[in-house]
Amino acid sequence: QVQLVESGGGLVQAGGSLRLSCAASGRTFSSSNMGWFRQTPGKEREFVAAISWTTNTYYADSVKGRFTISRDNAKNTVYLQMNSLKPEDTAVYYCNKNPPQKDYWGQGTQVTVSS
């Protein structure tokens, strides 16, 4: 069983940066493909970025070139570095395995980008 806790969200002006962290418990983290997802009110949760256990990375077109996903297996942590933030990036951000698993959704962390 894996438990995931997101942190690092906040309020930032357009063009600014934030780094999100996802701390995972459980012994299978290093062999798990992980992802970041986001959701705004009234919309479906959407894929943002993923990193495989071999550190291959994948991004949604909307964040490509601005966001970077990384992992530190020694710390059981996945990161999402977000640069050049836009108001449309405002959402609650979640991490999960990739593909996501129902039982692993955490509370998420709110990111708000002001214009």
* Estimated helix fraction: under 10%
Mean pLDDT level: 95
In whole angstroms, the N-to-C terminal distance is 40 Å
Main β-sheet, in a few words?
6 strands, mixed
* Count of beta strands: 10
Count of helical regions: 0
User: Stretches where pLDDT falls below 50 for ≥5 residues?
Assistant: none
Strands of the largest sheet, in order across it?
2-10-9-4-5-6
Protein model, in words:
The protein has strands at 3-7, 10-13, 18-25, 34-39, 46-51, 57-59, 67-72, 77-82, 91-97, 109-114. The chain is an all-beta fold and 115 residues long. The protein starts with a strand and ends with a strand.
Q: Keyphrases for this structure?
A:
115 residues; mainly beta; 6-stranded mixed β-sheet; 4-stranded antiparallel β-sheet; 0% helix
Topology, pairings included?
Blueprint: E1 3-7, E2 10-13, E3 18-25, E4 34-39, E5 46-51, E6 57-59, E7 67-72, E8 77-82, E9 91-97, E10 109-114
Parallel strand pairs: 2-10
Antiparallel strand pairs: 1-3, 3-8, 4-5, 4-9, 5-6, 7-8, 9-10
